[in-house]
Specification:
Blueprint (H helix, E strand, L loop, with lengths): L10 E2 L3 H23 L8 H16 L3 H20 L23 H7 L5 E3 L2 E2 L1
Antiparallel strand pairs: 1-2, 2-3
Helix pairs in contact: 1-2, 1-3, 2-3
C-alpha cells in the first residue's frame, strides 16, 4: 500500500513572546540534532539503535518532549542515510524546522504545548 504524505503550509501569527518560545524550541531541536550527530558513532544510521544510546540524555539536556526527542533522533538517522547514499557528510542542523510524527495528525496540540498557549493560524480560508 502506498503511503500518502500531506504537507500543510500556513502562516502563523504569534505574539512576540510566542515567537520567542517557538524560536527557543527550534533552537533546542537543532541543538539536539547536532548533539546526537556528534555523540553517536558516525556510521550508525539505525534510529532504534541511536535512540537506545541517546534518548534519555536528549530529553534531559534539551528539555524536549518525547515526540521531539524521537523526531530529532529520526532526523539524524535519516540525514546520515542520505549522506551515505550521496557520499557526503551530515551538515550542521539549523533551527529552521521541526517535524511531528503522524500520530499527532493535523492537530495543533503540539504547537500549543510548545508555546504553552494557543496560536492563531491563518491560511487562504481564514483563521481556524
Amino acid at each position: 500500500m502506498t503511503e500518502q504524505v500531506l504537507t500543510v503550509r500556513c502562516k502563523l501569527s504569534p505574539t512576540d513572546s510566542q515567537a520567542e518560545e517557538m524560536d527557543d524550541t527550534l533552537k533546542a531541536f537543532a541543538d539536539a540534532c547536532n548533539w546526537i550527530n556528534q555523540n553517536t558513532p558516525a556510521k550508525l544510521r539505525n534510529k532504534v539503535r541511536i535512540q537506545g544510546i541517546v534518548y534519555q540524555d536528549v530529553r534531559a539536556k534539551f528539555g524536549l518532549s518525547a515526540n521531539l526527542a524521537i523526531r530529532a533522533i529520526n532526523r539524524v538517522a535519516s540525514n546520515r542515510k542520505t549522506a551515505m547514499k550521496d557520499h557526503s557528510s551530515v551538515k550542521n542542523f539549523e533551527p529552521t524546522s521541526i517535524d511531528y510524527d503522524t500520530r499527532e495528525g493535523f492537530d495543533l496540540a503540539p504547537i500549543r504545548r510548545a508555546l504553552n498557549s494557543c496560536v492563531n493560524i491563518f491560511n487562504l480560508y481564514g483563521c481556524f
